[in-house]
Amino acid sequence: MKTLAAIPCYNERIPIGYVVLIARKHVDEVLVIDDGSIDNTAEVATEAGAVVVSHGVNKGYGAAIRTCFNYAKETSVEYFCR
Questions:
Q1: How far apart are CA 58 and CA 54, in angstroms?
Q2: How far apart are CA 81 and CA 40, in angstroms?
Q3: 3-81 is classed in which CATH architecture?
Q4: 56 and 31 in contact (C-beta within 8 Å)?
């Protein structure tokens, strides 16, 4: 059984590392969808141990959620939380 926590975010470089570290304690994999951030959100999330999918531009929450579901489907995740 593979569990995934998906975290859509935009310009969250300060809290994202902590959030990823806490989430990793409860799931098999943490996915961060960086929705076009202009800070270093993606780098901080990666350093904290998350898999990061980056949108080149801000597409909005709905697009980030679609990316979460697509990733979960492509990687055969059995349980998914956001």
A1: 10
A2: 24
A3: 3-Layer(aba) Sandwich (3.40)
A4: no
How far is residue 4's CA from residue 35's CA, in Å, rounded to a whole number?
18
Side chain identity, residue 65: I
Per the structure block, which two tokens stand in for 28? Answer: 């098999």
pLDDT band at 4 (very low <50, low <70, confident <90, very high): very high
Contact 8, 70 (CB under 8 A): no
Q: Could you tell me what percentage of the chain is helix, strand and coil, using 3-state DSSP and rounding each to the nearest 5?
A: 40, 25, 35
Can you read off the two tokens belonging to residue 3? 């569990």
Q: Model-level pTM? A: 0.91
